[in-house]
Design a protein that fits this description.
about 450 residues, alpha/beta, five-stranded parallel sheet, globular
């Protein structure tokens, strides 16, 4: 796939700090710019907006209130396509961290940082920026029956305080569901803080989630707010929850049961006021495997379960998504408006879309950049050349056989309690084949 060039900017008055971050991130992301004076920011922005900005919150020696950095953050959020901002500070007290997140920062890192933590934060910010800055991405797109069901559940659950677990394959939009829950909740004015649980290093897991006190360990140069404290009054989105080791799951369970956390080095616990929304791409049979996920933690997290359907199970949404993203990237790259050839649309709707909406969006971007014909052709999207089965005239026998197949699949799913893997084994077909049949029958 062809994707826009990644651009990172480190805005920090300490040149040694900026250089260290630049050297670390350059290996992963190529060119990384640094800037030590926010007064020169506008000149840099004139040459293009970075994808991610690592922003120091204090520039004047002796200042620790973060006001200078917050002013820059406000400036960046006014841009047409704002960058994802990660706040950098050596004074990560809770109010400052919360204020930065409320003003649009996607994460915060304390100095000195853990290299793995900083790299993971940048990776997550790049992924979220790609989705969050797509017009319409803040809303769940699609009006096929499976998506209408998801939206109905969100509308019913959002005003409550129930913990919600969002299940679905990679690329279906689990974080968009979590954001929709937050935006429709009574906590909408508070912080929405997303944490990639699989990216948290084991050694700093407790510090990242629960915080620490100055002097608690060798590198604890100042007090640090954990994610639970930073999201106070808002929603804490625990993404990729299924990637947590069992030892970390036990610590998370304790915090959820007691509704309090104890920062490392503190002598008393602190109450927490967050709503928990979690997500995983694990199948439900894997989630219920005690060797993978603790049952007691699962029951704390899945008070309500929202299953986001894969794109192949809501094919009626594909034409609208294609037209939306093609139009979006035509404007972004200043390319001429072109129609989608009918033959291409037919084949794209028949494609199973591994990678789901994220893959469709990338394919549209590729088509806009590389397609050169009068219309968009199937080949412009960079997908495999497989064509759908030839159409035929349906007979009464087809309808009877179709109804029988649909009823059989529905019965298997009911007996398997919605477990796709188990239903596929019962039917004697692969998961991929079952998903195709689900899309075919609109189940």
């Amino acid at each position: 796939m062809v994707e826009p060039r990644t651009r990172l900017l480190i805005l920090d008055d300490d040149r040694d700090v900026a250089c260290a971050a630049q050297m670390l991130l350059r290996r992963r992301h190529g060119a990384v710019a640094t800037l030590d004076d926010p007064a020169r920011l506008d000149a840099l922005l004139a040459d293009g907006v970075p994808d991610v900005v690592l922003l120091d919150l204090n520039f004047t020696p002796g200042r620790i209130d973060g006001a200078e950095g917050l002013a820059v953050l406000d400036r960046l959020r006014t841009l047409a396509r704002p960058p994802a901002v990660i706040a950098l500070t050596a004074y990560a007290d809770v109010p400052l961290a919360v204020e930065a997140l409320k003003r649009g920062a996607v994460d915060f890192i304390t100095k000195p940082w853990d290299n793995a933590r900083l790299a993971a934060a940048v990776d997550a910010a790049l992924a979220r920026r790609a989705a969050a800055n797509v017009p319409g991405a803040s809303a769940l797109m699609g009006d096929a029956a499976p998506m209408r069901e998801v939206k109905a559940v969100i509308a019913g659950v959002a005003p409550t305080e129930a913990n919600v677990m969002v299940l679905g394959e990679n690329g279906v939009g689990k974080e968009l569901v979590a954001r929709a829950l937050h935006q429709a909740s009574r906590r909408a004015a508070g912080t929405f803080l997303a944490v990639d649980m699989g990216a948290l290093p084991d050694a700093t897991f407790e510090s990242e989630l629960f915080g620490h006190r100055k002097g608690a360990f060798t590198d604890a140069k100042s007090d640090r707010a954990g994610r639970f404290q930073a999201a106070r009054g808002g929603t804490l989105f625990l993404d990729e929850i299924g990637n947590m080791p069992l030892s970390a799951q036990a610590k998370l369970l304790t915090a959820l049961e007691r509704r309090e956390v104890t920062p490392i080095g503190a002598d008393r616990p602190e109450p927490v006021d967050v709503r928990i929304v979690s997500a995983t791409n694990l199948t439900e049979d894997r989630l219920f495997d005690p060797g993978v996920f603790r049952a007691d933690l699962l029951f704390r997290l899945n008070t309500i379960v929202i299953r986001v359907p894969p794109l192949r199970a809501r094919r009626d949404d594909i034409p609208g998504l294609l037209h939306h993203y093609l139009s979006l990237y035509e404007g972004q790259y200043q390319r001429p408006v072109r129609e989608l050839a009918p033959a291409a649309l037919e084949r794209l709707c028949a494609w199973d879309w591994p990678g789901n909406v994220r893959a469709l969006r990338h394919a549209c971007e590729r088509a806009v950049i590389l397609g050169g014909g009068a219309d968009y052709r199937y080949e412009d999207f960079g997908l495999a050349p497989a064509a759908p089965a030839p159409a035929h005239v349906e007979t009464d026998q087809d309808f009877r056989l179709g109804a029988l197949e649909r009823d059989t699949i529905a019965a298997a799913l009911d007996k398997a309690r919605g477990n796709i893997s188990l239903a596929a084994r019962m039917l004697g077909v692969s998961r991929a084949a079952l998903y195709r049949k689900l899309g075919k029958h609109g189940i």
